[in-house]
């Protein structure tokens, strides 16, 4: 079987900035690329109105007091520098990809954007229009609507994980609220830097000089969600006019923490169920029944809570049969231990997937950013290594009975019903 590396080989280097905050980096002399990630505790859980967190994270990199939006765009295009803005429920990340020879030009611009963002009204107008169109389009996609129904069913509309936006929210975006969110949540002293690629002492010193003199906020709130499972499973439907297919999403909140040894074993079980092309769900619903082109089972870690789900796009006439087959596969895991041959195959598959996720400096950096945002550390890797080495069919059957029994599942359907 493939073995995964020890956790200490996956840890980043660290550098303590003058303000006490840690800067993390994954150095490599074999590339001339550098990726700079700026992480802020400013996700949607902290916004005062819908879409404010995403709009703030996108627009602060558009223009500064010293450079207009067109000047910033020209500066980046001329040097081939890519800027990528991402946000989730707890964190926002801004990523700069550049050749190392452009760092001397880029860092003053990053400094200017962080310290003196302008938030042009005309760019907010463009953003409003783009987001309105995207949200409206998502309301016609069965997969998007099934996901919305699912998280609303699990957490409720008042919970950050259960909220979703409507087109009118884009029109209500206000530049003053965006500026306020930036001031409160994107403070330079609260940023976490993660670097990958050609990182040297000069780059570390430069970032420290520009950002290390800001004191961190002492009262910055820091959310963590309660891992409270729903008391009873629910069913939700959403018909979409004109839809030609439907999406099925089945799952639950898992009453388990990522650092419990059983969670690593549960990762093996979910992989067996629907985590690779030869999984049980794919073999049954795609290869045997022809109900779908793809069906997947996953666990998603959020800060303080883990969600298990199965999702598949199916033709309308296959919706009920597909649901029945999924429930049968879940029940089969409860009733029958897997064979040692199948278990050995899945252990190899999962170990191989893990190796691909850390196969390179930039992959390790991206993985670390995700783990940092969800407050996961390499104890999960240690637990997974132990589980892969020692898991038995009886272990999987025990976890299936406790966590994946059909009676525990919430079912959401959207599209052509």
SSE layout and pairing:
Elements: E1 13-16, E2 22-27, E3 33-40, H1 52-59, H2 69-79, E4 82-87, E5 92-99, H3 103-115, H4 121-138, H5 142-155, H6 167-171, H7 175-185, E6 192-197, H8 201-211, E7 235-239, E8 245-254, H9 261-274, H10 280-288, E9 295-302, E10 305-315, H11 319-335, H12 340-357, H13 361-374, H14 379-390, H15 393-403, E11 410-415
Helix pairs in contact: 1-7, 9-12, 9-14, 9-15, 10-11, 11-15
Description:
The protein has two domains: 205 residues, Metalloenzyme, LuxS/M16 peptidase-like (Cytochrome Bc1 Complex, Chain A, domain 1, 2-Layer Sandwich), CATH 3.30.830; 181 residues, Metalloenzyme, LuxS/M16 peptidase-like (Cytochrome Bc1 Complex, Chain A, domain 1, 2-Layer Sandwich). The chain is built from 15 helices and eleven strands. The protein has a six-stranded mixed beta sheet, sandwiched between helices. The longest helix has 18 residues. It is globular and about 65 Å long. The two termini are 44 Å apart. The model has no long low-confidence stretch (mean pLDDT 94).
List descriptors.
Cytochrome Bc1 Complex, Chain A, domain 1; 417 residues; 5-stranded mixed β-sheet; 19% strand; alpha+beta; 6-stranded mixed β-sheet; 2 domains; 45% helix; globular
């Amino acid at each position: 079987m493939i073995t995964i590396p020890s956790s200490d080989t996956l840890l980043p280097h660290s550098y303590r900035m003058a303000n006490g905050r840690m800067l993390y980096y994954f150095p490599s002399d074999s590339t001339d690329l550098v990726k700079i990630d700026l992480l802020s505790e400013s996700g949607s859980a902290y916004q005062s109105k819908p879409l404010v967190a995403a709009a703030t994270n996108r627009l602060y990199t558009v223009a500064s007091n010293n450079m207009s939006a067109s000047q910033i765009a020209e500066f980046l295009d001329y040097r081939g520098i890519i800027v990528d803005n991402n946000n989730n429920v707890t964190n926002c990340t801004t990523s700069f990809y550049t050749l190392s020879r452009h760092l001397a030009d880029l860092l003053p611009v990053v400094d200017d954007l962080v310290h003196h963002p302008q938030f042009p009204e005309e760019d907010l107008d463009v953003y409003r229009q783009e987001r309105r169109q995207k949200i409206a389009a998502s309301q016609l996609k069965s997969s998007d609507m099934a996901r919305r129904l699912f998280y609303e069913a699990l957490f409720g509309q008042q919970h950050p994980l259960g909220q979703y936006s409507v087109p009118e929210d884009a029109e209500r975006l206000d530049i003053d609220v965006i500026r306020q969110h930036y001031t409160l949540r994107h403070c330079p002293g609260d940023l976490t830097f993660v670097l990958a690629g050609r990182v040297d002492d000069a780059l570390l010193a430069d970032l420290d000089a520009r950002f290390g003199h800001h004191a961190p906020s002492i009262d910055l709130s820091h959310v963590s969600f309660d891992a409270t499972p729903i008391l009873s499973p629910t069913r939700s439907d959403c018909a979409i006019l004109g839809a030609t297919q439907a999406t099925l999403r089945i799952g639950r909140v898992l009453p388990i923490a990522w650092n419990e040894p059983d969670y690593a074993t549960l990762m093996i079980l979910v992989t067996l169920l629907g985590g690779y092309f030869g999984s049980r769900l794919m073999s049954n619903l795609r290869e045997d029944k022809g109900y779908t082109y793809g069906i997947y089972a996953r666990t998603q870690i959020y800060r303080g809570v883990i969600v298990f789900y199965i999702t598949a796009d199916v033709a309308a006439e296959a919706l009920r049969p597909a649901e029945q087959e999924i429930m049968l596969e879940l029940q089969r895991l409860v009733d029958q231990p897997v064979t040692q041959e199948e278990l050995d195959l899945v252990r190899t598959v999962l170990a191989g997937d893990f190796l691909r996720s850390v196969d390179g400096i930039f992959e390790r950096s991206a993985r670390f950013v995700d783990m940092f945002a969800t407050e996961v550390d390499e104890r999960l890797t240690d637990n997974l290594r132990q589980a892969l080495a020692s898991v038995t069919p009886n272990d999987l059957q025990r976890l299936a009975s406790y966590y994946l029994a059909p009676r525990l599942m919430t079912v959401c359907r959207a599209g052509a019903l």
